[in-house]
Amino acid sequence: MQVNKINQTIPQRLNKDSKHSARKPQSFKGILDKGSLFVADAIENGGLFVSFTLQDMLGTNLPRPIMGLMRNTKENKGQKNLKFAAKELVREFTTGPSMFIIPAILLTLGKKIFGKATEIPMKIIKSFGEIHAANPLNSAGQALNKEEFFQNAFEQIIKNTKGETSISETTAKSAQDFAHRLASTLTDKKKAKEVINNLTDDFINIAKNSAQDAAHTDFTSAVISKTTTAPIKDTLKFLVSYADDVVEKAAKQPTEKISEFVKKLSTNKVLGRCAANVIMYAAILTFLQVIPKLYNKAEGKANAGLKGLMAEETLKDTGNDEKNQKTNTSFGKSQNQPSFKGGINPAQIVNKLTGKGLIGRIANGFEFEGVNMSFPLLLGVMGFGILLPRVRQAKDKYDREEILRRDLVTCATMCFAEKELRKGFSKLNESKSGFVLAAKEQGFKNKNIFQKLFEYLRPIKGVRILSTPQIVSKYSGLENYKNGIQGFCEFIEGQGGNLAKVFSLTDEAKNIVQSLLSEQGKDIATADNKTITKILSDAKGSEKVKELVELFKPKDNPWVTKAKTLNARFTALSVIILVPAFLGFFLPWINERSTKKRIQQENLKTKINSNLQLLHTNFINNDKKAQQIFADMNKFIQ
């Protein structure tokens, strides 16, 4: 078979294959998988905002008011609990949306007032500033324009990503091409999305072709500096924002002062970004303090969750003792607020904020990602913005107990459980399918079972589910791996996958690999990873291997689709079914049941005490032995 005929041959074979024929009616499973992919892609593209909003809407906002409406209907003569439903409605529909609407508004205002660099993470601003200040002039001795700055930046990014010690000729040519194409988006906004996507693909191919460790290298990540990395797609967007904000201003300065101007301006931009993070976080926490007052007002003075369980006069008084005991614990001005007085160098502050020390780790951990929150930020909002004010403003002991039970479980589910369950489900799918669906650090397979479990449980680092861009970069374009198909085999083997199962996904691939193995008297069903890797490596450049590589060329090939689907199924399942069922229905039911049980126990205890007191008064006063028995019984009840 000639190479120029491969493109004609493969599509025909795929169309004949019943697995991939477009004419075959879609099964119910196929429809579910497409829906799962749609949900997973939406969550991935929207980040925490979409994920949290979907879980919040389906798991709390919609079901909890319904459950609130049905609360204690049996004990309340079949009447709907409108006040408790109103409380649930106000609480859920104000909490979740405000966590993202507030930073979105403030970030938009910040970009308008202080410049587009407000949206760029601090470390990246600093790195761009260093690249800019190091070479602020072009070969003609004039200030850099945007395209020239892009070229300098791409030279450093591509060099760092490729692991070069100096800028090679091919790196310089690639940087010039990247810069020209990115600059074209400044004047033609309509083509910006297409250009960005193409630049992303080309960068991934460069990273893939130069990776020393195909198994553990993230081809979608750009190395901006020694300490700063970011997804290439985000990096392209940040380059444009920085150029719009800083490069234009620098070009207006005298040439001899540009370098110093850039250093000062980038320092100010980092401080501005830090201030924006603090303001957005403080605004969210401040608003969340008010929400308990809003839903308590919607509920009325009494705890509507107890309606039907207590007499009306008793119900109205349940919170009186609580109110009398509360003290003012609202956030006030600190008496020992730090003040930045003269003598502190802003550049030193920036170095602290973007460094590897404790301050740097805290600042980096508490950065917003657009309107999305980092994991530490989310934990802080859950603890100080949701749990603390709700507990502090609880109406009575029953309300407080329900808040702790409901919100602790909800916060843990939102922050930890869903992610960990996805990792566990991914592990099961990996074992069954042979596909690599999550990224493990180098040396993972040498860890003991407890260390591996810890890596799966770590919420930020450790094992990470492969994103869609990462899956596409790994499972397509095998010709762009440094060692061709051997690099792909090294990825599957290095991450603990099974090459025999992966290549057996389609009959075409299976037959090609089987034919190469048969020449050595081996079978794909029993061949291990090392055997398959060696066979394909030895046959590199042959027509069979070229045909196999061609099958993987499209970005939507069967292997990409399979890997994406396997990861998407549980994402959709958890967001659409598991979370709503658990948080929206089961948890409110547990709260209602637990409160009823507690009140029944208290009522029974009160009734027994009353009867014992009556017994004591009428029969036991004159009998010392009976008095001792009574005292022991009373002590046991207490």
**What's the helical proportion of residues?**
55-70%
Largest sheet: 2 strands, antiparallel
Number of helices: 26
Structural class: mainly alpha
Structure description:
Residues 1-23 and 327-342 have low confidence and may be disordered. The chain has 26 helices and six strands. It has helices at 6-16, 28-46, 48-61, 63-69, 82-114, 122-134, 146-162, 169-187, 192-210, 232-251, 258-299, 312-317, 320-325, 346-354, 358-365, 375-392, 397-433, 449-457, 468-475, 485-494, 499-503, 507-518, 529-538, 543-551, 558-620, 624-637; strands at residues 221-225, 228-231, 368-369, 372-373, 438-439, 464-465. α6 (122-134) packs antiparallel against α11 and α10 (232-251) crosses α11 (258-299). By secondary structure, the chain is mostly helical. The protein has a two-stranded antiparallel sheet. A two-stranded antiparallel ribbon has the order 3-4. Among the domains are: 3-48 and 421-562, no CATH class; 144-252, no CATH class; 584-637. It is 69% helix and 3% strand.
Provide keyphrases for this structure.
single chain, 638 residues, mainly alpha, 6 strands, 69% helix
What is shown here, in short?
Helices cover 69% and strands 3% of the residues.
Describe how the helices and strands are arranged.
Elements: H1 6-16, H2 28-46, H3 48-61, H4 63-69, H5 82-114, H6 122-134, H7 146-162, H8 169-187, H9 192-210, E1 221-225, E2 228-231, H10 232-251, H11 258-299, H12 312-317, H13 320-325, H14 346-354, H15 358-365, E3 368-369, E4 372-373, H16 375-392, H17 397-433, E5 438-439, H18 449-457, E6 464-465, H19 468-475, H20 485-494, H21 499-503, H22 507-518, H23 529-538, H24 543-551, H25 558-620, H26 624-637
Antiparallel strand pairs: 1-2, 3-4, 5-6
